Amino acid sequence: MGVLPSTIGPRGEAAEERAGERPATDADVIIVGAGPAGLMLAGELGLAGVRSLVLERRSRRGEIPKANGLGGQILELLRYRGLLERFEAACGGPAHPAPQYPFGGVHVDFSSLPDPPLRGLTLPQPELERLLAERARELGAELRRGQEIVGVAQDDAAVTAEVRGPDGPYRLRARYLVGCDGGRSTVRDGAGIPFPGTVCPEVNRLGQLAPHESVTRLDGGDLDVPGLGRMRAGSFTRTDRGVFGFGWLTPETLLVSTAEDESGEPADDGPMTLTELGDSVRRVLGAEFPLGEPHRLSRYTLQARQAERYREGRILLAGDAAHLFPATGVGLNAGLLDTVNLAWKLAADVQGWAPPGLLDTYHRERHFAGARTLKHTLAQVALRRGQDPAAEALRDVFLELFADEQPLLRVGALIAGSDIRYPPPRPGGHPLAGAFAPDLALRTDRGATGVAELMRTARPVLLDLAGRPDLREAARPWQGRIDVRTARTVQRPADALLIRPDAHVAWAAAAEEPGDRAARRLREALSDWFGAPVQGG
Fold this sequence. Notes:
alpha+beta, 8-stranded mixed β-sheet, 5-stranded antiparallel β-sheet, 14 helices, about 25% strand, disordered N terminus
């Protein structure tokens, strides 16, 4: 990444700052990258009243889906924002429980559970990006395509970005800049943030195809393949040359995949062809597997990487720029959740009410969540790659464990990211502190509602569930910044909940907690997360 010329002084101070004047900015936040993470961040910032400018190197939205849908905890967050129905309408069906999910070369079967812990939404990435861009623009974000970041610099007040566009180079200035520009992030490299990790020594090839006319679909989605006989859908065939698998994306679309050991990046980084996929299948199986008309073909390696820090001054990272995981189906969920955590904290700083250290909690919380996702995806690598009898025995043991309800629930929550409980800033808090707020059914003087409906505006909420005027009075000085609601619920988990804009619990009062103690802890939590009391509150 380039270095900006002499407008940046010896200590990184811009000339206008040295003159004691506050520089004008082109946006509150510049977002580099118009993939799902960048667009989600722009929408969340707009919801909080912050101006964002999204810069995208591509001149138009990609048409080849890098991902086929959404799954995990992000679906709950979209529901809390009132967006899930909009996304479901776009894909023609509701989010659905995942009956099976691949985990380290085996399939976890959730079909026996009355309430599976993992849900999915079939939504190709181009359509997801369209919906997120639409929402971001509705909330005031500006999106510029064909704009490449070639340099960044920062001082105490702002970030300056050097941009190359169709009409030539120019500069932009903003309070903050967030790199959502993928695994090869230019922003991350320019900020000098290390990105340690490894590349898995294998190449994965994936095809979405119409079934070939010579194969017959059997009950349960199995296939009768000439020369191979009956092949079970959702299973993996292992040989000493690699792994082959197939399943169904829709009743008309077959997913075919191979994994072969090939150290480093693929020799051919051009578009994959049907011939290449067929050759790979032949090498792995040692036989022909007829392939129909392709809808999408892709080739990729899996990496295990995490940025050492998600913040360097006024430059931050989110999504694939911050982490890459050696398993599919989790990166998009993690990246979108990054942005929801970050947006309200950036807004608090831009709007001038952030308490000291609030923005640093973005790194602390989401690096913790990313490390947990990295751990279970690395465990999947170990489970997936072994080809000897010991590895087969290990996979058999895992499948036996997955036959029981509690291991199924636990691994489902692990994959979904719904088991994350952020480390609280103060010890001795309520068990709900740091967790995603449960969607309690609420009864108020205005009728029935739920926690999810209270979070649609992304404002902090103090929810009094036990008629505690002492707690409402303790929160009065912050009422210009938080919403205070009184409600009743069956089997309340706490007397009161303080819920952050990202729907995580900042603080909770235990049932019948003494007034003085509960009020003191509430004021501490309000100060920790939402700054000093509002003047005149």
